[in-house]
Input
Amino acid sequence: MRGFCLVMLLATAACAGTPTPPTDATPDAIDATSVDTSASDAATLDASMDDRADPSDAAVADTSASDAADNPWRLEPRLPAAWQEIGATAHNGELWVAGGFEGFRIVDSVRVFDPRTGAWRDGPRLPTARHHVSLVSAGDDLYSLGGELGTSFTPDATCYVLRRGEAAWRPIAPMPEARGAMAAGFIDGSIYVAGGVGPRSTLVAPVYRYEPGADRWSVRAEIPTVREHLASFVYAGRLFVLGGRRLTLDSVTNVVEAYDPSADRWQTLAPMPTARGGFAASVWGDTAIANGGELESEALVTADALDLRTMSWRRAPSTRVPHHGHGSVGLDGRIYVIGGGVRPILAATNIVESLAVP
Output
């Protein structure tokens, strides 16, 4: 289903007019050239796609002065390219983003944002281009786990580590089975993977545990609600897994479950106010924010906040533009929302926003 949608989108995009180049990466305003949504030669998947934008999509990108003044989401320096279906995490005080689609091109790109300087820089490229990959920070080391390959969206089991101070990724033991569009987190010295898409477009249930010291994977308890394109964060020694879908855009869910590695057991929690798939979530302090997502007819601007002390949900401020297939990272008192698509399937943007966590 997902591969079919991409093929149809590429065929449609091939009929579009020639787009104009995007504006520079300054975060001063959102205008019609902020979003990359079409290309005249999409079928070739050429490398120039990530530098193009669709100037016709003013309805998505237009923000009035009053809206800009009232919206608490702050515009940050833009990504160097329009980018979606990425992996993202906070690592050593910076934001790291990897893999995904830059425009219509599947990439091995890694880019790093330093909030102290407000600058993006290139990081060591992944060994192979992939999308729907998971990035996990584990102490001084950064891990790239699984993901999907090509326009066939084929799940992959290969994993890599980037050691602090090194300039290249090293292979580690592959996962027991290929997996993409999954949840992942680092807890008490181990990495845990839950949900996602497995071989032959199947939904996978077992949790995988990776022990970095032993370079070894093991199989743990099954997730109660199997789904992919879900979001996750780690809090108080548990992996929280939110929402997701069952391989189609019309199957999104609002279910929330938490995995306790010490007991190898799942707990069902209060559902999100909004059913979401293809979205992201992150935590800072005692607050988690689930944001964006993808439905059949639209990408979402809405956000929901979870008070982790009371486990109660409330509506959070909506982002300035829609995001799906994006990254969300908590760092230095702010929640960052990075890139993604502004419409269902592929419609990448380079916009980055952040919200101060109260």
